[in-house]
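1st attempt posting a full record on here, be nice pls
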Amino acid sequence: MTALHDRTADQRWEQAFDGPDGQSGRVWADYAVQGDRRAILHVEADDSLRGTGAAGRFMQALADHARAANMRLIPRCGYAVAWFKRHPDQADLLG
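the predicted structure (as tokens):
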């Protein structure tokens, strides 16, 4: 697993993970800037990482990043909405 990267020019966060087969893959989220908030538009993982929990680890890294940057998040895609519902301890980031 690498650190979460914010590719601001592309409005995308991404992170690399090692898959169970030894190959690496990426998880990424596209976002829209809304002042000091970021709307999470879409979260996706490479096929090699699906079902491994990498997307959940990515979302936790994203939550940690947002907290450190004093950034509020607006989940718009179904996965991000569901992740925040499963993690009510992260609700302070929503707004």
